[in-house]
Amino acid sequence: MLLHFENNSKPPHPPLQSTEPGTVGNTPAQAFGRAAGLWSAAIGQHQYPDGEIGLKLPPNLPAEVVIYCSLHQPNDKLIALMLAARTARALGAKHLTLVAPYLAYMRQDMAFTPGEVVSQQVIGHFLAEMFDALITVDPHLHRVTRLQDAVPVRQVQVLSAATLLADWVAAQLKQPLLLGPDEESWQWVSRAAAKHHFDFEVCTKLRRGDHHVQITLPELDFQGREVVLMDDMCSTGNTLAQAARLVKAAGASKVCVAVTHALMAGQAMALLKDAGVEAVWSSNSIVHESNVLSLAPLLTQGLRQIYKPA
Ligand code: R5P
Known about the structure:
Number of helices: 9
CATH class of the largest domain: Alpha Beta
CATH topology of the largest domain: Rossmann fold
Bound molecules: ribose-5-phosphate
Radius of gyration: 20 Å
Strand order of the largest sheet: 2-1-5-6-7-8
Distance between the termini: 21 Å
Structural class: alpha/beta
Shape: globular
Strand content: 25-35%
CATH architecture of the largest domain: 3-Layer(aba) Sandwich
Largest sheet: 6 strands, parallel
Number of strands: 16
Number of domains: 2
């Protein structure tokens, strides 16, 4: 059974009626439930005046339960997940899978100065205490390269939307050049490029603050090229906006953006537009106007691997 926090009608308290596999529902969680053939139910949610939250789960749960929760704007969701996962166990769940298409807190993977919290480890262990399995898409892994070293769950499925985004790009542009804005993006850009034999490269990036990055382009001829800037996520948009400005100045005829996770904090879309980006494409790991790709089929494959007979 699939439990999710997404509710189209958003009443003040709960609609707990289960949805049969195959019935209508248009949020990413519902689309995933349909694709995976799972009975699904929205977790009833209530926010108390002081900010605390109240949840309501179906009172009788099967042994195998999947909870869908994409972890952008993560802080309240982490508390909700803890409440839901602990209660799901009390209500009968024996095996709990978390489907988190976007996995938060993965970027701080070391203490850069003494005393800094390594959020990746803290949040990773917090999730691993609650769930038996985790399915996620393009988690930001850099110095820690194996997801289970960050989130030590028993079963893990690390999926990637890179080749699916590449299929989308191939349908839009003839001979694009894929460009990652920093060294970490190599993992996604190289995979995407390989699928369609696109040219690709990555830039180098120096982060000076939340809103300040310094990007250096690779030595390439950008003249007249249609460039797709590709990354795992766009947060404030500063990284991709600066890369866009540089490739335009270097002669690119067109710049587009393809990311798995459209975090799009603050004025990110406006920044990209001002920098000359003509189109922004993303997966629906986070619901956003730039979504062109549903992750439901990919997440379904991941779930089948979790439940594959040993
Ligand atoms: C980190 O390296 C990520 O891959 C992204 O490049 C980064 O989070 C983008 O951040 P922003 O959009 O705020 O520049």
